Amino acid sequence: MRKLIFFVMAVVLVACGHRGKGINDDATALDSACQVKTDSVEMPVGAETDDENAEDKGLQRLADALESIVENLDEKDMFDYRTQLNWQKRYERMLVHSFDSIFPGTELAVEAKADSMLSVVNTYLNLHSDDTTWGMIYSARMMRNVCLYRIAKASGELLKNNTAFASELSAWSALHQALDGFCLGIVNLQWWGGSGMGPVMCYTSYEICEMRLNDLKRVEQKTAKTGDTDAAMQQLRLQVEKVVDNAKKDSNGDWLEDEQRSDYSAAVKRVENGGQKLLKLVEEWISVRKDNSWATAQCLKDMAKLIESCVESNR
Question: pTM of the entire structure?
């Protein structure tokens, strides 16, 4: 645990580089947490102390803050952008509170404090990941939740600068829910009953969020619509339609036991219906984007690639 804390603290100190009053200027219990020696790590941040109780309190304080962030970011999927914005604001306050409890008196903007703590969360997750089924599920789910936070933050900024972006966010909310359900339905069929299904499902949800976050970054950077010609967009539409069609299963589950066969057939039907709904919502989303200056081609390419990876996930 202590090596974890030292590593995480190093990330915090790098991530929180700032002007004005420095972290090193704070003669607080943080000094005790940072100035601890182990067999392989030495973190000289404040004055040295031999007080084992102060050391343990500082380490526990940081560990508790990190645990709290990870646990509280584990929210259920929320596809409505208004809900996401409210959720993000709540947890921004929680992130800032955690930062202030570790670095009292530090002069940083709210956004910088929250982002610094998210960097710590990412490091925490990486260090706690393992190859067990539950470990992979937990890690992927937490990665998705951190990504959802960043999506909501980016969406809020874009909406603040352009109220017309609300129509795009609304169209994406419906598309995101359909895409998530469709992709997870494919994974369910591909891994039917297999132990790898859970981790793949959770990581797929994360990949969808990552795709959207990259899309929002392009919108924010006002990426030129050079790839959004009518011919290119029509080709991309056909590409998405093709991978959706490839997800269809001809099998009725005759290789399964009788009690599972009807469940499998119902799952096949849900994927088929989900694909039809998805294509409809893709068209609606493209229409909203086309009427504005938001580049769309790259996101469609990424979407087709992601769906294809689901189809190929257990072949």
Answer: 0.78
